[in-house]
Every structure is written in C-alpha cells, then in structure tokens.
Specification:
The protein is of the alpha+beta class. The chain is built from six helices and 16 strands. It folds into two domains: 2-67 and 80-157, no CATH class; 161-268. The radius of gyration is 20 Å and the shape is globular.
Amino acid sequence: MVGEILLLKLFLSLLDDPNSGFTKKGRQSAKISTQKFIENEFFMFNYDFENIKYFENWSLEEINPFDINNDVAVHDNKKVVFNWSLENHGKRWSEEHLNKLEEMCIQGKSFLEMAYELKRRETSLMSRLNSQGWQYELTYNGELSLVNTEKHHKFNYSPKSIYNGTLVLDQSWFNKSLTLSFPLPLMFADESELDIEFGVEGNMKSIKIQPNLMSYVLTNKPINFINKSNVIIRNPVLGEVIVDFAEYSNSKWSEIYLRTLYFKKINVI
C-alpha cells in the first residue's frame, strides 16, 4: 500500500496537468513536462550501458553544498552527469535528422542517446518530438511510455539496468535497512525474472523485489557489513554491480548512485 501511495504522489507531481481526469478504464495518464522529465532522470531510462560510444561524455559533478539534511549531505558521493555536444542547437532540422529521430523512437532508444546523436538541447529535442506526434506519458501506476497516437506506437521506458538504481541507507530510530531503489517500477520484465542475488564476502542469497516493483530490501542489519568490501548485487536482466563499502566507511552517507560506480568502473578499464 505504501508503494502505491508513493507512486500516486510521484505521478501527480510529474503531470503537466495534475487535475486531469481519470479515463473510463480508471487509469490516468498524462504528458510529462520537459523539466520534470529531466529532473527525475527519466532521460536515463532505456539507456544502453553496453555501448562504449557514449562513455567519453560522462563526468563527475561536485556535491551541492546546499543538498543537506540535518547538516548531513544527502548525496555524499558525487553524481555522474552526461554532457553532450550542442553543435546543432538553433539549426534547422534536416530530413536526415528527422528520420534518425523517428528511427530512434521506434527502436526505444533513451532520450539521452537521442540528444547525443542529434546534438540538441533537451527542450529543443522534446519540442521536436512533440511536433512529430511523440510524447512521454506516465500512468498513475508508474508505467512510462513514449507514445505516438497518430501512428499507434507505444514503447515502454523503464529503469532497465542496475545502474539506474540507488542504494539507500536508513538507520533512523525506527528503521535500519539497506535498500536498492529505482525511480519507477521495473515494468519491462516479468516479476519472476527480477529476483536478485545479493552477496557479502562470497555468501549469496536470493532476494525478491518488493510488491511495488521499485525496490529490494537487501538487509535490515546494514551495520554488519557496510564497512566491508566486495558486496555483489546481480540479476540476469539488470546486470551486476560490485560495491566496496570500505570506500564509504569514513563518511556519513545516505545514498549511493550506482551509475557513479559504473563511471568509476569504466574509467578503471
């Protein structure tokens, strides 16, 4: 129930028109504004982490000193940002680029990859998508889709990689847990395919995704291993990540963006 309430709150916060009515089927959906789409990092959905072509544009962003809660940084580790060329900004759209945009939509490419390939600002790219009949829509149950009603196209956009996730450490008075959390439900695969293997120093266990399809409770005793290394999280469709918690042992932290570890992994290679 908690997951459903959080999804509904997220949904209402993202809509261009939060007062839009429910459909006859009882499902509500609406277009997402460009600002909310980027702020919530939906541009990372469907991103192909195996394509080394895009790595050169990854960079680390400094911590925002105002991003604090009770004098403790909410994001102690730096965030990974993606900077693409804007050399086509303000230029006329060629037929070649319009065809490429259409092709990438039908292939279900991430918004990030579209921006990289077409070298446009996110507002310009989203505007062109809309003018071509495409728009991103979100339903109240957390299903994000790229839709073209004129051509009867609908493509699912979802967190499809473990690197879309965040490790959340909660050690409050009432709760102690380490959770792997995603910004929207993992709706690209059957629930039976989403069990993860979680290993601490070689001891592996299987963990099922929560009913909201957005999170995994890795442990309710995080203090037992957060200073240890070689913690493994893996799944056949989401991929694998190895976390060295010793790296964070001397700092107070509440969240670890897994794509930060991806960035480090790529640069080590």
